[in-house]
């Protein structure tokens, strides 16, 4: 009994030391630093294209790095690759399971992946020799649902799962290269750093973790949220992380300061954040909420500067293209819209 | 069907993201459970969906081991029926609310504030600020008269700039102005809205303009109701 008490005291003392160290480097607040910056003004985005073809709620979407093609996953059990300029469907891929939670486009444009309640990450080759899209690999080893997946390259992909782990896979062999364990709750989302050396994960233990991919270690852990973290993303310069949580707030954490810089919240918002996408400049943050609305935040001043889709309670997922020229929203009514 | 919606309302639930998928799956299982299956099986499914208050560990895990076992090959017909049901319910939930028949004339600044703040939280309020003699105002007024007939759950209003009590802010250069509100929040602010439209514009042009910003509700349930399967690649 005495030893447990001692260890507990030691753990608490370490936590206090960490808090003190963080406070010591806090020489300013984001509000102070951004005080002299001009306001962004009201942001009103217009629908440029509507992508029709799915038959049910859109669960997830992801842009290709060419900012022209994108892939969407729907409750109708299909993955559709769209040309967002012409609105044509480039590929329509039937899935074995309709309960798909995530989809991803490989940076090369050659592969797409998806996964969900089937606990697997299925990789599809879009550039097969005979022109048909087939399953290339089924990465199965997770003991929980597949909440998110992101490609590092055509040969590596990272997945996050309801089994509380994230995994780096070798697509060629279909095996796990590294298992990133440490979260105490279901992992809900992940994002890869711009230099592909790190990734961050958000989980139902209310924390976000920064992982070093090659070292296979957890570098930093960020707390502060009062509920599950459902969405996570890197600030465009890779030095900060943004999280969205069921506590109805988004938070910006700086990696070098190892602490939270600001919280995006409003007393009028009471439902959880389930998706987020920063603009390419980082000045705007698009946050999708569980009531199907999207709020646009001024990331520096932490003020709402607009809403997307007229607050029509339709948006189920969002994504910003890599060239920053457009954002795409998926709705529960089966349509996707391109906005800017 | 409405009974299950009420029950769903009581269960803590997420609608979007991975948790949204889990929630949809649970509802699907509850709905498609065979009527001949005893009551206790449904109870089990329901119990597994709501985490017990005292179980902090359990709260961090969103799906139970028993639930994972229940995921299996699902009946395509049941799935199709479920998807339609989902969208139908969402449409019904959003079209509920008061209806209006024509454009309302607001007489004062107070009336303006009241219409913004007091309307039902689901009602879209479109206010046209006009002034006699300013180009485009009369045309816009007749366009809105048309739209008010078509979009009966949107409250269209108009107010003379002078009546607002803030005539300096609404000088002739920024009129006609269209402001769009919902649940007390400004969603759209279009000063000199006619500069976005052609010299001669009609109700359909104003409608298209508002639709570009996603500000008007869908007129009808337009999602693909037929179940054409899109197999293979389409170019």
Overview of the structural elements:
Chain A: WD repeats lie at residues 51-92, 139-179, 180-221, 222-263, 308-340. Chain A: Pfam families: WD40_Gbeta (PF25391). Chain A: Belongs to the WD repeat G protein beta family. Chain A is mostly beta strands. Chain A has a single domain, classed as Methylamine Dehydrogenase, Chain H. Chain A has helices at 2-25, 30-33, and strands at 47-51, 58-63, 69-74, 78-83, 89-94, 100-105, 111-116, 120-125, 134-140, 146-151, 156-161, 165-170, 175-181, 187-192, 198-203, 208-212, 217-222, 229-234, 240-245, 250-254, 259-264, 273-278, 284-289, 294-298, 303-308, 315-320, 327-331, 336-339. In chain A, the strands form seven sheets. A four-stranded antiparallel sheet of chain A has the order 1-28-27-26, with no helix packed on it. A four-stranded antiparallel sheet of chain A has the order 2-3-4-5, with no helix packed on it. In chain A, strands 6-7-8-9 form a four-stranded antiparallel sheet, with no helix packed on it. In chain A, strand 4 (78-83) and strand 5 (89-94) form a beta hairpin. Chain A starts with a helix and ends with a strand. Chain B is an alpha/beta fold and 235 residues long. Chain B is elongated. Chains A and B meet through strand 5, strand 6 and strand 26 of A and helix 2, helix 6 and strand 5 of B.
Would you summarize the structure shown here?
The complex is a heterodimer of chains A (340) and B (235). With 340 residues, chain A is mostly beta strands.
Topology, element by element:
The complex is a heterodimer of chains A (340) and B (235).
Chain A: H1 2-25, H2 30-33, E1 47-51, E2 58-63, E3 69-74, E4 78-83, E5 89-94, E6 100-105, E7 111-116, E8 120-125, E9 134-140, E10 146-151, E11 156-161, E12 165-170, E13 175-181, E14 187-192, E15 198-203, E16 208-212, E17 217-222, E18 229-234, E19 240-245, E20 250-254, E21 259-264, E22 273-278, E23 284-289, E24 294-298, E25 303-308, E26 315-320, E27 327-331, E28 336-339
Antiparallel strand pairs in A: 1-28, 2-3, 3-4, 4-5, 6-7, 7-8, 8-9, 10-11, 11-12, 12-13, 14-15, 15-16, 16-17, 18-19, 19-20, 20-21, 22-23, 23-24, 24-25, 26-27, 27-28
Chain B: H1 2-10, H2 17-32, H3 39-49, H4 56-59, H5 65-70, H6 76-95, E1 104-106, H7 109-118, E2 124-130, H8 137-150, E3 154-160, E4 177-182, E5 185-190, H9 203-212
Parallel strand pairs in B: 1-3, 2-3
Antiparallel strand pairs in B: 2-4, 4-5
Protein name (chain B): Phosducin
Keywords (chain B): Cell projection, Cilium, Cytoplasm, Nucleus, Phosphoprotein, Sensory transduction, Vision
Region (Disordered) (chain B): 1-22, 39-58
